[in-house]
Structure formats: structure tokens, C-alpha cells
Write a structure and sequence with these properties.
elongated, mainly alpha, Amino acid adenylation
């Protein structure tokens, strides 16, 4: 495992959320903003 796995689990265990953004949305700043807000 990479250290990033521990970072993800640490955040999830303390109330964080993991959001997997579709590729098309990640290419558009406006769409990315709309997804997060």
C-alpha cells in the first residue's frame, strides 16, 4: 500500500468523504465547482 491509502482512511474515519469525480467533470473547472458546491 502507498502512504496515500492511510491518508484516505484517516480522513474517512474522522468524518471525511471520498468523492470520485468522473473524468469529464474533472476537465471543466465550472463543472468541478458545481459538483463540490
Amino acid at each position: 500500500f502507498d502512504f496515500s491509502v492511510w491518508e484516505i482512511w484517516g480522513a474517512l474515519l474522522h468524518g471525511g468523504r471520498l468523492l470520485i469525480v468522473p473524468q469529464l467533470i474533472s476537465r471543466s473547472p465550472e463543472d468541478c465547482y458545481n459538483l463540490l458546491c
